[in-house]
Design brief:
2 copies of one chain form a homodimer. By secondary structure, chain A is of the alpha/beta class. The first copy, chain A, has one domain: P-loop containing nucleotide triphosphate hydrolases (Rossmann fold, 3-Layer(aba) Sandwich). Chain A is built from 12 helices and 5 strands. The first copy, chain A, has helices at 7-21, 43-70, 89-95, 115-118, 124-128, 145-153, 158-177, 191-203, 214-220, 222-235, 251-269, 280-288, and strands spanning 76-83, 105-109, 136-140, 180-188, 243-247. Chain A has a 5-stranded parallel sheet with strand order 2-3-1-4-5, sandwiched between helices. In chain A, helix 2 (43-70) runs parallel beside helix 11 and helix 6 (145-153) crosses helix 10 (222-235). The radius of gyration of chain A is 21 Å and the shape is globular. The A-B interface holds A 67, 70-71, 90, 93-94, 97-98, 101-103, 105, 107, 109, 140, 195, 198-199, 202-203, 205-206, 208-213, 216, 219-220, 273-276, 278, 280, 283-284, 286-287, 290-291 and B 67, 70-71, 90, 93-94, 97-98, 101-103, 105, 107, 109, 140, 195, 198-199, 202, 205-206, 208-213, 216, 219-220, 273-276, 278, 280, 283-284, 286-287, 290-291.
Chain lengths: 291, 291
């Protein structure tokens, strides 16, 4: 059995993962290998065991974060998940966020905007869904849909896109300044793997509900979406909130890598248990008097 | 190894659990043994294993419920959890709801009403937090606080309480008619066990945040709360939404019994995977053309 790594070793390992996944300047998403497993070379079995270990540590730190939120702290973590259909966003929600206490989690999936949402600025519905202090939030799709969709469809002009990027940058800087750690993950699934996953949805009656005819329409427009992703990675990987591109053809890997990024964000908060807002000795005496 | 039980056997077993926990007419909560383990006599180790098995089954049925919600279905399940401080409501949220996909769960904890909430009818904030179709909702405290607190404090007169019970009955009947299965669980922790749990919160720095001086105030008023619970059980155990009283001195038991009640509710929905809203053969051909 391997020796338990020290806190410094864990930290160095997680930094290594982050470095290997951070979107490099000028990266083109189609140049990346969606089946690769950067920073984790020991295969699925080892990876799944490691996910369990990461989950336990995440769970402890999540409780500490929650305790802070309940004690007036302003910290929170927001995981922004983007990815083409079948990239595995739902699987991350289930198998990564599922590792921690559901009370400490705030999940939000963004679909096509409702008529009410369309009457507001595109960030309106996003702001409403931000995690409260003390929580880990997950956005399954996000404000980036408001760049990706019009970009891919060619329905927004360059000035509009520039204005949206500027609004997003300001928004995310504001979030970070307010105590929210923003972790942005683009899950990258290959064309071939996407085909297999869509086919499985059509072949298995228990997966039919996950399929929509729109999935093929979007698949046909895949090159336009890839270009839109390149643009997003190039223009919104801010110092305070960089993009990570996670290869997602291997589900175990995408879950492990995303959980490592999340654990790193939680460790960075560096939170102790909050001090009590009452006098412990006094309360012990009061309690004992009721025995 | 025991033979896997048939669906009928599982169902009969769950009915047995429900029968043993349903609040009997005229029950007095202080007559119940909070350390007992009705319907599960094989101890903690077996109980914890069984919780894992129940969790797997719950998880499957939760996904089916979610699929229905996504396909236009109107069914949902609402677990209403009540209990004195330290009864273990948070533990149920974590260890029971934590067994299923967090995407399919809607948790809401109700604290002291905010000024905005007080400007509305007491059911206003409750209605806003109802689980959407396809979800399992959990209320950690609920509209019953609006009976329990004024009853225990003696700040509501008989007419007011009667009006609230009537409003609650109408509300819950409306919920059930609209497709929501309502499972109401009162967790029952003894005076002695409550003392030990509060003491642990004061002794362990990692639990200080869970303690509030108000906990001792409420403990001092415990007889008044017990009488309020008796009143709630007597007057709001409706045929469509009965109360279950779950002995909670043994945490493993409270989690197991509550998960059994939840599994029974999910089985009762009797849902198949929803039919696709598209033609499968057509979509297979469209997809294959993109290969």
């Amino acid at each position: 059995m391997a020796k338990k790594p020290s806190a410094d070793e864990v930290r160095a390992r997680l930094d290594d993962v982050a470095r290997s996944l951070e979107a490099a300047p000028g990266v083109r998403i189609t140049d990346l290998d969606a089946a690769s497993t950067p920073s984790f070379d020991d295969g699925r079995k080892t990876g799944e065991k490691l996910l369990g270990t990461i989950g336990e540590r995440m769970s402890e730190l999540q409780e500490r974060l929650y305790a802070h939120g309940r004690s007036g702290g302003d910290r929170s973590v927001l995981l922004v998940l983007q990815g083409l259909d079948t990239a595995g966003k739902g699987g991350i929600a289930r198998h990564v966020l599922g590792l921690v206490d559901p009370q400490g989690v705030a999940l939000k999936a963004f679909g096509r905007p409702t008529p009410e949402e369309l009457e507001h600025d595109f960030l309106w519905r996003i702001r409403k869904a931000l995690p409260p202090a003390g929580r880990i939030g997950l956005f399954d799709r996000s404000h980036y849909e408001d760049i990706l969709v019009p970009h891919a469809a060619g329905t927004a002009d360059a000035d509009e896109l520039t204005a949206r990027f500027a609004a997003i940058e300001q928004f995310e800087r504001e979030l970070v300044a307010g105590g929210t750690t923003v972790v942005k993950v683009a899950l990258w699934v290959s064309r071939d793997e996407q085909y297999l996953r869509l086919r499985e949805r059509l072949e298995r009656p228990d997966k039919h509900w996950k399929y929509s005819p729109n999935d093929v329409d979007v698949r046909l427009a895949r090159p336009a979406y890839e270009a839109a992703y390149d643009e997003v990675l190039a223009r919104s990987s801010f110092d305070v909130a960089p993009w990570y591109v996670v290869p997602a053809d291997r589900k175990w890997y995408a879950r492990l890598a995303t959980s490592a990024l999340l654990l790193r964000a939680l460790l960075d908060l560096d939170l102790d248990w909050p001090d009590p807002s009452y006098d412990v000795a006094t309360e012990l005496a009061r309690l004992d008097a009721t025995r």
